[in-house]
Amino acid sequence: MHKLNFLGIQSDHGLIFKAATYALFANSEEAGIELALSSINEQSKSFVISQDPERFSAKSDKWPQLKKAQLFALDTSFFIENSTQFISQIIEELSYYSGFRGAHLIIHFSEDLANHFEAKLVKKLLHKTQSIAERYNISLIFLFTGKTAQQKAPTFLAHSKLIDGVAHLNSHLMNHNLYFDFWRSEKGVVSQISYQLFFEQPVSAELNVQSEANVEPVYQNLEQVFISKELLPSETKLPPHYLICDDNQSVAEYARENKAATVVLCASHDVKKTELAALCYELRDVCGPWLKIVIKNKDGVLRHHDECVFLTLGVNLILHTTTDISRLMSQVQALQGVKFVRTLPKDYKAVLAHAKGVEAKGYLTPNSFVDAVKLQREASLSTGISGVLVILDLIKGVEPIDALRLFSVKRNGDIFTANQSQVLLYLHACRENDVDNAIERLFRLAISEFFAAHSIYSQDLYIEQVCRELKHADDNKELEDFSVQLLESAVEQVPLAMSTSGRTAVVHDINRFPSRKPCKAHPLKLLENN
Fold first, then answer.
1. C-alpha angle 208/212/217, rounded to 5°?
2. Residue 334: alpha-carbon gap to chain centroid
3. Which pTM does this prediction carry?
4. 3-state secondary structure of 37
C-alpha cells in the first residue's frame, strides 16, 4: 500500500489504496511534485507522466525510489485534441508494460493544462478512471500544479462518489500547508485535517491543531503605540496613546504586556539586522497575530533582500527612510484592527540561512552557474526574495569572452556565464523593474554595443528550463569555460606619462589588459607655424 510518506502524518491519514483515484492540487509546482513523489515506494511498479518529466527525474537524489519508476512525457497538443479520451489511450499503452497491473500511477498537469478541466470533462474523466483503476487494480493520482490550479478542486469535490481523496497544498515562502478536503482511510473518511509539511531531509509533517473556539480574545490596548526615540526628531509632539521608549528592547518589553498594540522599531547602522530579525520573530511568536510590528528604515540600511526576510518573520509594515513622522502616524493608524494572518516559520534561523543564498559572484562555469541558480531559487521560494535570470543575445560577430570581460560584479549572488551566442546573468534580490538599471551598473559600456536584445525570466518554470538546457549543452561538451581567459585578462590600472611642452599628464587606463604591452612615453615636440 502507498501513502503520502511524510514522517508525522498519522497512519490513517494519507493512505493510498489500490483500485482508487486521488487528486492533489498545489499552488507551487516544486512542492506539488515532491508531495506526489512521496507516494512512490519500491515495493510496486510506479509510472509518472508529465509534460516535463525531467522536473521529476531531477529529484531522484532526494527521492531515490524514483529511480525505479518509469517516466513518460505528456504531449500538450495530444491532450488538448483528445481531452475526453486521453486517459483511456494512456492506460491502453501502459498496459503493455510489465508490472502495470497493481501499479502506482501519477499524472501531472501543469497550470496551462489544468485550465482545460471543466466540469463536464472532470465528470467523464472520473467515471473512466474509476472503472480503469478497478480493472487494473492500480492507484492513480492526478497532480495539478500552478497558482490557479487549486481553483479546480471544487470541480473534483462535486464528484466525491467517483474519487477517493482530494487534498491541496498551499505553499507560501517556507510554509507548506497540506489540507485534506476529504480522504478515504481504513476507518472511513477523514476531512478538514491539515498538516504543516517540511521538505528538508528527512521530510516531515506536523499536525495543525485546530482551536476549539473561534472567538477572538478581546484586547483593550488596540490603539496603544510604542516607538523608539531614535526615530523621532527633537521636540516632536505625539498623541497621548504614543509612548516613547529608549530603544528597541524597551519597545519589546512593553509589547509583551500589550499584545494588541503597535510597536515601531528602528533599523539603523547601529542595530544588527540579525538581532532585529530575532526580536521581530520572538514578538510575533509570543504576542500573536494582533500585535502590529512596524520597522522604520532610518539610515537606508534595509534593502529589498532584508525587507523580504523581515516580512517573512512577522513584520506588518516597513517604512522608507524618507517617511516623516506625520506620514508614520498615518500608516500606524491604517494598521489598527489589522490581524497578521501569514503563517510564521518554525525557525527564524532557517529563514536567515536560506536568505543568504550563495556567496559566489561574477563568472561561473555553466555547470557551477546552474547549481548556484538552483540554490538561489530555493532561497527565493523560502523567503520571497525575488531573483531574475537575464539572457543577453550577443550581436553577430561579438565573441562571448569580449562581453564577459566588461562585466564588473561586486555583490554576492550576482553571477553570469555564457554559451556560444548568449550571456546568462542571474541577479539575486532584484525585481524585474530594476533589471535595466542593474545591467547598466554591471556592464562597463552601453549594452547596445554588444547585445542585440535581452530576455528576463522570473518564474521558476522557465528558469529551470533554461538551466536544464544549459546543463545539457555543457554535459555534451558544447560550451567553453572562459575562467582562464578572464583571469589572464584581469583589468589593471596602468599609469602612462605624457610630456608636452614641459607639462606632464598622468593617464590611468583602467581598461587596459595586462596581456598587452604598455605604451612607452615619448617627448613630443611642438612645431610652430610660420
1. 105
2. 30
3. 0.71
4. helix
- Output b/e per residue, 166-202; b: 16+ Cβ within 10 A: bbbbbbebbbbebbbbbbbbeeeebeebbbbbbbeee
Q: How many CA atoms lie within 13 A of 86 on its CB side?
A: 19
- CA torsion through residues 448, 451, 452, 453, sign: negative
Nearest Cα to 287, choosing from 317, 334, 253?
253
* C-alpha cell belonging to residue 254: 512593553
Angle between helices 366-383 and 460-475 (to 10 degrees): 160
Q: How many CB atoms lie within 10 A of CB 102?
A: 13
- If we measure between CA atoms, which residue out of 239, 301, 312 comes closest to residue 267? 301
pLDDT tens digits, residue range 392-432? Answer: 999 999 999 999 999 999 888 899 999 999 999 999 888 88
- Rg (C-alpha) for the chain, rounded Å, is 29
Query: Residue 83 phi/psi, 5° resolution?
Result: -60, -35
Residues 6+ apart with CB under 8 A from 280: 265, 293, 295, 310, 313, 314, 315
Strand partners, 6: none
Is the Cβ–Cβ distance between 456 and 434 less than 8 Å? no
Name the nearest CA neighbour of 489 among 405, 427, 408.
405
Q: Dihedrals φ, ψ of 133, to 5°?
A: -60, -40
- How far is C-alpha 469 from the geometric centre of its chain's CA atoms? 20
Segment 175-206, tens digit of pLDDT: 889 999 999 988 889 898 999 998 888 889 99
